[in-house]
Design brief:
The strands form three sheets. The protein has a three-stranded parallel β-sheet. It has a two-stranded antiparallel sheet with strand order 1-2. The protein is about 60% helix and about 15% strand. The protein has eight helices and seven strands. The protein has a single domain, classed as 3-Layer(aba) Sandwich (Rossmann fold). Helix 1 crosses helix 2 and helix 3 packs antiparallel against helix 4. By secondary structure, it is an alpha/beta fold.
């Protein structure tokens, strides 16, 4: 989605882990999308939950020390606007989870994207299928294609 003519995003953990783990499906598309979004930089509204999820996933794949390094890289990406998960966000996320039959963490990303008019970028099948047409949801490849079309 565009806000003032500029693309804004909420990017799910699945995209970051896919970009970092070459064994993951869609790794190349995730890498290219994140590089493009960071280079501009585009506003990325991220729940602070992202830091926890990235650290947990990275620790399972590469170990604790590398996971903490990965979190620092994600935290420092250009354009990141961090949204703390408080009681208000928890309630809104719960309503979205119930309405769209999502897992709790997936609903947090959806709530952030909805509130800020952002496109949710994800590789999570449940988010991709359950959230449309309620909000814009795209894979990294689709989001990149939209960005590139907007540049021409």
């Amino acid at each position: 989605m565009k806000s003032g003519g500029e693309a804004v995003f909420t990017i799910d953990t699945s995209v970051y882990i896919s970009a970092l783990n070459l064994q993951e499906p869609g790794s190349n598309e995730s890498q290219v999308f994140l590089q493009h979004a960071s280079r501009r930089p585009l506003p990325v509204f991220s729940p602070t939950l992202l830091l926890v999820e990235v650290c947990a996933a990275a620790a399972r794949i590469w170990g604790t020390d590398q996971a903490e390094d990965v979190v620092q890289v994600v935290r420092g990406l250009p354009g990141q606007l961090w949204i703390p998960l408080d009681e208000s966000w928890a309630e809104e996320s719960g309503r979205i989870a119930a309405r769209h039959h999502l897992r709790g963490s997936d609903a947090v990303y959806a709530a952030v994207a909805l509130r800020y008019g952002a496109t949710l970028v994800t590789l999570d099948h449940q988010q991709l299928t359950c959230l449309q047409p309620a909000m814009p949801v795209q894979t990294p490849a689709e989001a990149l294609e939209s960005l590139l079309r907007g540049q021409s």
